[in-house]
Amino acid sequence: MRKISTLLAVVFSLMIGYSVQAQTDDISPERKQAIDSLALEKVRDLSKYVSIIGNKSTPWSEANRVIDRAEELFMAGAEMGVSSLVGPEVKYYNVRQYFERLMRLNYDRVEIEWFKIEYVSDLQRQPDGTYVGVITIFQKFSAYDKEGGLVYEDTTKKDITVYVKRKETQIGGRIIGFWDVLLGDIRVKETSK
Known about the structure:
By secondary structure, the chain is of the alpha+beta class. The protein has helices at residues 2-16, 18-24, 29-54, 60-71, 95-103; strands at residues 79-84, 87-94, 109-125, 131-144, 150-171, 174-192. Helix 1 (2-16) packs antiparallel against helix 3, helix 3 (29-54) packs antiparallel against helix 4 and helix 4 packs antiparallel against helix 5. The longest helix has 26 residues, at 29-54.
C-alpha cells in the first residue's frame, strides 16, 4: 500500500507541475528528481518481474499475467539483449519474446538477481521534446539441475534506455498533462563469470 501511495504521489507531482513546464519545455531540478525516481522504480519493478517469470515454480498463468504487466513498462518495439559465456554473440528479442523464452529455459531452477541499478547518463532533451537517459544494471543469472547443482552462472552488465515523454489524460472533464516514463531497449554491455 505504501508503494502505491508513493508512486501515486510521484505521478501526481509530475502532473501538477506540467502546466508550468509546458511554457518552457524544460524539466526543473525538482521534476527531474521525481522523474528519476519513477524511472528507477520502473526498473526495479522490471527486476521483480524478470525474477517471477524466470522462476520455474511460478505457475504458467501467473507468469503470463506478469509478462503482460512487464510489457506495459516498455515502448513499442523495444528489444532485450541475451548473452552467454558460451559465445560472444548477443541476440536481441522483442520484449514478449524475451519473456516467453525466459519461461521456457531448460533448467530445473533459475535465479535472476539485478543489482547496482543506477543512472549512467543524465536525461538529454531530444528534438521532439522527449528526454532520453540510460540506467545501468548488473544481472546475475544462475541455473540449477534437478539435484540442485549449479550448471550455469554469469553476470551481465546491461544498459536500459529510458524515455520520458509528455502525455495528457482527461480527469473530470479537464485535460491534465504529465510526464510518463517508458523503458526502451536493454543492451548487453558485457558478460562475465
